[in-house]
Amino acid sequence: GQQLNQSPQSMFIQEGEDVSMNCTSSSIFNTWLWYKQDPGEGPVLLIALYKAGELTSNGRLTAQFGITRKDSFLNISASIPSDVGIYFCAGQDNYGQNFVFGPGTRLSVLP
Amino acid sequence: SAVISQKPSRDICQRGTSLTIQCQVDSQVTMMFWYRQQPGQSLTLIATANQGSEATYESGFVIDKFPISRPNLTFSTLTVSNMSPEDSSIYLCSVEDPASSPPYEQYFGPGTRLTVT
Questions:
Q1: How many Å apart are CA B37 and CA B15, to the nearest integer?
Q2: How many Å apart are CA B83 and CA A107, to the nearest integer?
Q3: Mind listing the pLDDT tens digit for each residue in B64-117?
Q4: Closest residue of B to A33, CA-based?
Q5: Residue B42 to residue A98, Cβ atoms within 8 A
Q6: b/e map of A1-20 (b: 16 or more CB within 10 Å)?
Q7: What are the residues facing A55 on neighbouring strands?
Q8: Closest chain B residue to A94 measured between Cα atoms?
Q9: Closest approach of A45 to chain B, Cα-based (Å)
Q10: Is A31's CB within 8 Å of B41's CB?
């Protein structure tokens, strides 16, 4: 079945630094979603991407839909302590198909 | 986006018993989904629940173990039957945003943290 890979698996950064993480697939997707999950909570949708090459921002977060349609990137600028959590990507190849979730990137922000 | 609530938020259950988890949405939605998230893992889809029809289960999940009800467009239940410690997980309800256009964005409830002893 389809699988998504996320890198890095985990990262420790200093407060104020920028963060970059990515999600890759061996197959093409038509929709990419990025979620953040805090401990004890459900995932919260951050950004949705629908077109190859699309670049979308949500505050300090910016995500891009890769041109090959096999990858997506999420960047966080000027990190703050509340950015701590697990970031999941999810891909959908066609409308009506189920989303596939990546294994997540665990972000820790050091003061 | 839809507001989703789940009950209970957490529970500790004995092996061999069953637990029913409720999911309530503040608006009518066509598609509801149930996911499992094992400790430290990603999300795995258990089944898709549509109102008026039987749930569609993913590979590795069966109706006898995870019966699902979908009595109306705002509510669904997932039962974890004959529990064993391996069923200890977070169970998440999810819906497609009814206010968006296809392809729909998917939103999650807060989850039910189940521990089986």
A1: 19
A2: 33
A3: 999 999 999 999 999 999 999 999 999 999 998 767 766 678 899 999 999 999
A4: B105
A5: no
A6: eeebebeeeebeeeeeeebe
A7: A64
A8: B103
A9: 7
A10: no
β-strands A19-25, A71-76 pairing: antiparallel
Q: pLDDT by residue (tens digit) across B24-57?
A: 999 999 889 999 999 889 999 999 998 888 899 9
Q: What is the mean pLDDT of residues A21-37?
A: 94
State in Å, rounded, how far the first CA of chain B is from the last one. 36
A45 touches chain B (CB under 8 A): yes
Can you give the C-alpha Rg of chain B in angstroms? 14
Q: Does A44 touch chain B (CB under 8 A)?
A: yes
Residue of A nearest to B97 (CA): A45
Please check whether residue A48 touches B, CB under 8 A: yes
Which residues, at least 6 apart from B78, have a Cβ–Cβ distance to it below 8 Å? B20, B21, B23, B34, B46, B47, B66, B67, B68, B91, B93
Chain mean pLDDT for chain A = 93
Sign of CA dihedral A43, A45, A47, A48: positive
